[in-house]
Specification:
alpha+beta; Alpha-Beta Plaits; five-stranded antiparallel beta sheet
């Protein structure tokens, strides 16, 4: 490999190493204005998007010990990396793809585990940690908190149950159906987010 190509792969490998997640998207049909809009949306979530050649990405992933997904790395590829929570980033892509009909995610990685498009769809539906913390705090308040009435407590309990059902749905969806069942890693992530929210984790 030529020195300049080796340098590109080395830089890409370093980005993968520093990132808490890696998302892969197809940027076909995207214009410069579309790229700018998507990058502006990703920036507040601490994520960056870079166009890469598939061969360079495959080499960088192999160097860093990622699973071999070479058959899924085709077409016009852009890679998304970041040092914060992956769920808000997945939500940004879902919203953007719905609005513009472009930039759909192809696959992702967290802790080097492969996430399918179905897993990424589930991630996009998870509420932020702040909302989880607020919901859990509401569960733990005593009945006399700020003079809450029984009616208000019942309303909060109904909200809590709806929220819990929404969070737990991915774990129960497709039970017994391998095709629809979320990955073991994704199930663990959802439970971890609940635990972090309960203890005030960031």
């Amino acid at each position: 490999m030529r020195p300049e190509k080796t340098s590109i792969v080395s830089d890409l490998s370093e980005k993968l190493k520093q990132s808490l997640f890696v998302l892969v998207t197809d940027y076909q049909h995207m214009k410069v204005a579309d790229f700018t809009e998507l990058r502006n949306r990703l920036a507040p979530a601490g994520a960056e998007m870079h166009v890469v050649k598939n061969n360079f990405l495959k080499r960088a992933m192999a160097d860093f010990g990622f699973p071999d997904v070479g058959d899924q790395l085709a077409g016009q590829t852009a890679v998304v990396t970041g040092e914060r929570d992956v769920a808000p980033v997945a939500k940004i892509f879902k919203t953007f793809a719905t609005e513009f009909k472009i930039a759909a995610l192809k696959l992702g990685f967290v802790d080097r585990a492969v996430l399918s498009t179905a897993d990424l769809e589930t991630l996009a539906e998870l509420p932020p940690r702040e909302i989880l913390q607020a919901q859990l705090l509401g569960m733990n308040r005593p009945p006399h908190w700020h003079g809450c009435s029984m009616q208000r407590l019942k309303r909060k309990e109904n909200q809590r149950r709806r929220a819990h059902k929404k969070i737990s749905a991915p774990l129960l969806a497709g039970r017994g159906t391998k095709r629809n069942c979320p990955s073991r890693w994704l199930s663990a992530l959802i439970l971890r987010r609940l635990s972090e929210a309960a203890i005030g984790g960031k």
